[in-house]
Design brief:
Number of helices: 4
Helix content: 25-40%
Largest sheet: 2 strands, parallel
Number of strands: 4
Radius of gyration: 16 Å
Order of helices and strands: HEHHEEEH
Distance between the termini: 23 Å
Structural class: alpha+beta
Length: about 130
Amino acid sequence: MERFFVVPLGMEKIMDYVTRRYPGMPIFVTENGYSSPGEQENGNDVLQGVERIKFHKAYLAALARAIRKGADVRGYFIWSLMDGFDWIHAYSVRFGLYYINRRTLERIPKLSARRYGDFLRGKGTI
């Protein structure tokens, strides 16, 4: 998706800005996600999603730096839980932590879902 850029430092900078501009204001990151341009419908890479894992690891590290500097971050929500419909790209992009088989509607957790779950349970890094 050529219109999106991966710039984790931007997360840290915007958290720093919001913290300075609105002192004491709780912050919730309501959407942060990644769709790799090379994900193939029938390929194993769609279930592995190594680039998605790297993306979230980098953004969460940037968020952690901002928190250590005083940002009052109370929530971080990955976009999205499941592959869904995108208004511009229809079903051709996959943002979700869960792969949706369009024929059977089966939901299959991607590697990124497992890694993020482990991270939330305190069983390692994303």
